[in-house]
Amino acid sequence: MTGDKRRAHQKSRLGCKSCKGRKIKCDETKPACLNCIKRNVECDFLSVETASSPAGLNMTDLELLHNFTTVTYATLSENQALREFYRISVVQMGRIARYGTYALLVFCLDNVRYLRMAPKI
């Protein structure tokens, strides 16, 4: 390869359905992009779903969740499949609703307190 550099370009992440379907760059102008205007087709932009942070978690909450997914889940069952269910699925379900997240955090906090008070053998 010679020393030619690629030309810089902007990626189109929020393009319309038509441009995405044709796998072409959308200029993302609204209400209709130029490609759709030229082709005389309906320009339908996908609804933008921004990634939300998990229910306003602070550093302590994140530490509790980390503890659950690295330590606590393994103490809940001897069955490997069930342990993986706790480690992955329960955490995902907890993110669906705010009360699920809080319930999981309370459980994690209770477990951490128990482990700290347990006599060291």
UniProtKB/TrEMBL annotation:
GO MF terms held by the record: DNA-binding transcription factor activity, RNA polymerase II-specific; zinc ion binding
InterPro entries, A to Z: Zn2-C6_fun-type_DNA-bd_sf, Zn2-C6_fungal_TF, Zn2Cys6_DnaBD
Key words of the record: Nucleus
Cross-referenced Pfam families: Zn_clus (PF00172)
Sequence ranges assigned to domain Zn(2)-C6 fungal-type in this UniProt record: 15-45
Protein name: Zn(2)-C6 fungal-type domain-containing protein
